[in-house]
Amino acid sequence: MHATEREEAILAALERSGFVSYRDLEASLDASPATIRRDLSRLEEAGLLRRVHGGAKAAGDDTRADGQPLALQGTPFDKSIALHLAAKRAIGKAAAALCQPGEGVIIDGGTTTYQMCDHLAGKGLQVLTNSLHIVNALLPQDGTQLLVPSGTIFREQNIILAPGGEHSMPSFFASKAFIGAAAVSPRAIFQADAVLVASQRRFLEIAEEVILLVDSSKFAGQSGAIVCPLDRIDRVITDKGADPTMLEALAKAGVRQIDLVDT
């Protein structure tokens, strides 16, 4: 079993129960204790779990060690919304145009995906989202059906996440998932917080096509924890300010289509 396969198995076990023991990992992975310790170290460094006595537990928790509510890393929504706004609006409009009437879609929380909302009226969509900002924007639209996962509300982003590793998504399969990222490199997309990573990975599991919405400022290289490699992204929508070298790297990594919008 390769390292990537072992890591996926470890994270899957944590998602089911929130804790996994060294003994269980040795039995299920058919790997040596030293190999498992290295796997857990890598995942802990990426912010995807915490090693504890006897094993590992899911990275998220409802409180910090000092008893204060857990807060997400990254720029709060109300500060991020005004950054690169013209580009985000153009990207959101282009993304909304891809939605077909009556389609089931996922719209991940974020200030770029949020810009889709004004352009979705009249399409009769089923929308799964973890963003209360997006819920509030879509509620006035007659015919738009809304679903949300269970979990904790993080006020910085006004987003619903399940930090304990539980599988919190409703029974839903989307033809398209629209997601954002904190950063994009030639090999992967990143988020600033491990809890966001876990949520986006669950969205990827239940979507046929994954569409990444990022303005050109996000092509600054590696930052944060890896959500997925670029070959899991089917389409990228960005603005014409994107670095041509980076766009070439996206195509070489397996992204099938790249849309550049005017701002």
From TrEMBL:
This is DeoR family transcriptional regulator. Coiled coil: none annotated. Keywords: DNA-binding, Transcription, Transcription regulation. InterPro entries: Carb_Metab_HTH_regulators (IPR050313), DeoR-like_C (IPR014036), DeoR_HTH (IPR001034), NagB/RpiA_transferase-like (IPR037171), Tscrpt_reg_HTH_DeoR_CS (IPR018356), WH-like_DNA-bd_sf (IPR036388), WH_DNA-bd_sf (IPR036390). GO terms for molecular function: DNA binding; DNA-binding transcription factor activity. Gene3D superfamilies: Winged helix-like DNA-binding domain superfamily/Winged helix DNA-binding domain. It comes from the Bacteria. The keyword Cell wall biogenesis/degradation does not apply. It comes from Alteraurantiacibacter buctensis. Residues 3-58 form the HTH deoR-type domain. Pfam families: DeoRC, HTH_DeoR. SUPFAM superfamilies: NagB/RpiA/CoA transferase-like, Winged helix' DNA-binding domain.
